[in-house]
Design goal:
Layout (H helix, E strand, L loop, with lengths): L22 H13 L8 H8 L3 H13 L3 H11 L6 H11 L2 H13 L6 H7 L1 H13 L1
Helix pairs in contact: 1-3, 3-4, 5-6, 6-8, 7-8
Length: 141
Amino acid sequence: EESQPAMQGLNENRAIVLDGVSSCDFDQFLKLLYSQPIPLDIDTNTARTKLGLSVHEWMAALKISHHLWMMKIHQLSIDCMTDVAMDPVDKAAMALEYGIESWLKPSLNELARRPQPMTRADADRLGIDVILKMAEVRESI
C-alpha cells in the first residue's frame, strides 16, 4: 500500500512528502547541508560568515530542521537569526511555531510599540489569542 512509510521514497510515484515544506525551502536547506561540511562545534559568528546564508535561507533551515528533528541545525539557525532585524510579526510567528522563547517577548514588545495597528494579516499569522493580548497591551501603553 502506498501510504505505508516503508514504501515512500522508492520512486517518483511514491515520493516522500514533507507537509508544509516548499521545494524552494528544501532547496535552501540542501544548500546549507551540502555547500560545505558543518562542524559540530561551529559557533554562531563563524556560521554567519563562513556559510553566508541569507535570512530566507536560515528561515528555510529553521523550518525544515524543526520538521526533521535536526536539532543542531535547528539551534544554529535560531542562533544565526537571533540578532537579525526582521519584521516583528514574522519573528513572533516563528517564535510561536518553533517554540523559540527568547524571540517571543522582544517581538511582541516591538509589536506593541509600533505605530501601525494590527492587521488581518497579523491576526492570520499570530492567531486571535495573541492579537487580543496584544490589543490589551497596546491599550495599556
